[in-house]
What does this fold into?
Amino acid sequence: MKFTLSWLKTHLNTDADLSAILKGLTNIGLEVEGVESPAEKLGAFRIARVLTADPHPQADKLQVLTVDAGDGPLQVVCGAPNARAGLIGVFGSEGAVVPVNGMVLKKTAIRGVESNGMMCSFRELELGEDHDGIIDLDPQAPVGQVYAQWAGLDDPVIDVSITPNRQDCMGVRGIARDLAAAGLGTLNAIIVPVIDGVEPGPNVRTDDTDGCPAFFARTVKGVTNGQSPEWMARRLKAVGQKPISTLVDITNYLMIDLGRPLHVYDLDMLKGPLVARKGRAGEEVLALNGKTYTVDETMTVIADDVAVHDIGGIMGGEHSGAQDSTTGVLIECAYFTPERIAMTGQKLALTSDARGRFERGVDPAFLDDGLSIATDLVVKLCGGTASDATRAGTPPAEVKVVRYEPSQCLSLAGVYVGDQEQKHILESLGFGVEEHDATFDYQDGVPVTSAAHWTVSVPSWRRDIDGWPDLVEEVVRIVGLDQVPSTPLPRTPGVARATATAEQLVERRVRRTAAARGLSEAINWSFISEKEAASVGGGDWTLANPISEELKVMRPSLLPGLLSAARRNMDRGASSVRLFELGRRYFSDRERATVGFVLAGEKLSRGWQTGKAQAFTAFEAKNEVLNLLSAAGAPVGNLQSFGGASAAYHPGQSGTLRLGPKTVLAEFGVLHPSLAKQFGLAGTVVAGEIFLDAIPAKRKTGFMRPPYAPPALQAVKRDFAFVVDDAVEADALVRAVKGADKKSIVDARVFDVFAGPGVDEGRKSLAIEVTLQPGEKSFSQEELDAISASIVKAAEKLGGVLRG
It folds into this structure.
């Protein structure tokens, strides 16, 4: 929300300077984002008179001017078509910085003729888009004076960030009201003119009371449109609004000045009554931004018998907007339901200043006054005669009442503010305060005491006030948020206890482990598009009011976000991408803590030792999964490998790790080629997801670590090679071997796989290294033979034969 200091002072009678006002805004909770002073960058540009204008000897489109900016004549080369002797314009001398491009002016030769500065256009000074010629000022403008001072541009522009709950501050008057309540002046009264209509009001109505509860309107006939007065155009330009015409500028001015959006229609373009109604499927409207929008039954539109002329509360149509030739207008002042406005704007991806105000909620009790003020400005600036007002529908202007006790300010905010000061603050903000004394009565024979309290009526422009805590906030912010004491929370004496939960500790260990293994952490949105969700099986939760269509479904998998991040990195030249994310996946009954990772590009770059670049494989994905599961505290040694990974993975190069046949702790593998292609990734991409909530919780053993007790005797290793059917999984054989003697066998792993000469077709040889750990004494040969026999016997149950 931008406004100039002088604009603010039309509502606020104050002697406070800019510094005091900026400090006051911050203290009452209106964050100042910035202050601009156009005069600062225009201080070197002065009003100058062109004394002579002669053709350039070496260029047909240039002229050689003699310019006087108060210090005597200077020669300037100029290419503007409107340059002429006697013109009063704006001159930048040597050393001045041109605002539009930062160019420093200096004495130079242009086509062999010396030039000592520059005559400027509006665009070069960032005062407008006009670049057809140099600025042509009033002949009475004082030569030599700084242009910014003469033009009234030495008026600071203040930019304030307005939070969504402060709809009353979306107009200059609301900000002035807050500053007046804070003691920085007094609020000037609004003069609402009385409009005596010369004919009945226009035929308007509302058929969609849910979207447009009230539609007020007047007509003004016999108007003459044109350029708006200088004071209005100057204020609009200062806050970034381009002046268009008087009729349009009036609506923009009142929207910023009073926070009251309006719209004017060209009467000659309307065919029949103007109606606020629901849109119809397939109806289109060419909006003022030059784009065509298709509306539907969930949107409110303003239409006549022939066409839709307005997307209600957001943007008017180009066909019926006020033109230079307009001689009669209908002024619309309506109330649109904030929820309907927000939904329509999101569906159409259409933003506007009017939408920003209506979806916050404008003052529903200001329709009559807003219409009268707008009508009065139209008549004063454009002439014509006004009609009576037509009031269709009823605005939701019921008065809200809140019970409040002044002592609640101290109890909630910790700030003492006297009762009468609180009352003054609330009344200054527009609240009505009625005091009630304490009462004593009997109810069913039981004495009941009612404490002294106030009944506070909430002004119509403050729809954000719901209860007494909101009133405390109003009092405290006007007193000054800097007055709220910084009070530390109470702390129990002694050593602080750990605050992290068991789940948070697990997540920390996993995050550190992933980073230590060379993976970079990604933080993605928890929302993805419907198309992305469908690629990983579909999502259970779809937002009714998403930020955008690309962020509509609560993610059922971390993979889409990681794959999009991987593609962005690859598109920017990354040869190898290793990303992980720790977040939540969302399902119909719960959300699941999950770790996901993606490995894309080159595992090893090409080199004289490695040869060609090497891609990632499913085994790298499994390795990452095992390490992250170990960090999370999963019993890695007891896990079983299965197939059955989701459709996101390649069916022949993926798998799952389970604790038992049903509890899936992780899935991993090569990404399905179609999914990789959908996300724009070439080559082999591997990924995995670890489901942290599926890992069984460990029994608490206190804060002490178990004592380090290494075995006293050296482990013994034995190698076995078994010939098994191709269908037998290596993991199944390893588990069978481990189970042959759980006391002595502490580890087993496959170190070789062979199929070929010496092994029957359809069979393979799996070589397994078995680690045996003796207890109190070394193994005897008889014990080793017995363990070996049990291992062979376990393998035989899977059809394995010891290879000779």
